[in-house]
Amino acid sequence: MVPVSRSREGPENIVRIAFQLDDGSRLQDAFCSRQTLWELLSHFAQTS
């Protein structure tokens, strides 16, 4: 992992993220806009 080079401070917005899988199914959920890609992938790995 690489350290974050900029501040993550600021307003938090809720965004909906969806991943479409090879079989056509879709995983989706709402996340804080300040979450990292790693946090999103970890969330989906735990819930699927």
TrEMBL record:
This is ASPSCR1 tether for SLC2A4, UBX domain containing. PANTHER family: TETHER CONTAINING UBX DOMAIN FOR GLUT4.
